[in-house]
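Reply to dn_fold:

You asked what the input looked like. This is it:
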Amino acid sequence: MKMWSRGLGTTELRMDCRYYQVKKSPDSDNVYIIGKITDPVNWEFRVTVEPTDIAGLTKLFFNFSMMKLVFKNLHRYILYLINRQKYIDASGADLEAKVDTAYEQMMNRTRPSRLRA
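and this is what came back:
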């Protein structure tokens, strides 16, 4: 998957969902998607999916073009299931802890910085 944003200029981020983890939030009904973007940057990320997002996500996934793409490439999902341990191992066992730590540091403004004196 590719992602582009005006803030990135001409840069497109390449995302591979096979390496991402889905975790339930212990404090709410939210679900986290945790992963790492490695091309052309090296960023960990966490996407929070809230109950209010379900209608929009359902609309996206039941779009005719999306459904056609899924059915046309369903064999790729079967191959993923066969090889999924490879993706689990490659995503790193400590990814969730690393992302959670970085998130808390950023939100609490306690992240170490080389720019601080």
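Residues 25 and 86 are 25 Å apart (CA to CA).
Hope that clears it up.
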